[in-house]
Amino acid sequence: MTDDLPEDGTVASGATLHLTFAPTATQRTPDGMLDVDADGWGGVTTGLVDGVATVPLAGLAPGAHELRFSYGGGSWFQALTLTRSVTVRGTEPPPPATIATSTALSLGRTTVAAGSAATASLRVATSDGSSPVGQVEVRVDGAVVATRLIGSAPFEVALPTGAVGAHTVTARFVGSAPYGDSSATAATLTVTRAAATIAAKAKRRGDGRAQVRVSVTAPVPATGTVQLLCALKGAEPKVVATTTLTGDGRAVLRSKRPLPRRAVLLVRYAGSSAVAPVEQRLRLR
């Protein structure tokens, strides 16, 4: 006699067990009745069909049980007894219904200068008006810039503004059960070059050449070159010195040759990918 009970003896609530009786040497198929005793309290009697006894376990409560199967045999078959330990799993409750959510994203300003503040406001609403539980992930051009565990209240996150150009801002809410996920409509943040200010002070050296100290200030680091131009009366300004700003946005320009007194000087910052050009006029005394 064999059965189809799993090796660990664990079955689902309401399972059915099958016991198979092998034919005799004369190929006679066993028949007759099988008594099933559960935990010593008696049980059911079932008949063999084509040598197989079907034993429903629906009456067993969740937990561990000992089953004793007794086959009385017959004129052609000997009596058999089999004892097996069975563990019935409890019925798991169905998962809670998913509560739909919607995520809204809005930008404080859609166009900002490089280095200035930019924010995104987010809010997650639910279909039943309850407070959602989960996490919002904010991305700019696919890169995560903020994550926040949230409730129903709206909140703001800061956005990076270092790179000039158009940037795609997205937000996705990943809900904790029973709240479903949702994504906001993408928004576009445009970052323009930052405005800069320039401060220059000129003096005449003993050899007549001009020396100009320059400082360029912007919300983001100002990099690149500055030029010193000299404008003579009635002529276009000509470049008389060029240098590169240091890391703190400063530089010293020195003309290559002596310049006339009261010459009009133009200090010009060429700008960079993140900072707009700027210039200042001054007179050499």
Automatic annotation (TrEMBL):
InterPro entries: Big_3_5, Ig-like_fold. GO terms for biological process: carbohydrate metabolic process. It comes from the Bacteria. Residues 107-192 form the Bacterial Ig-like domain. This is Ig-like domain repeat protein. It comes from Nocardioides anomalus.
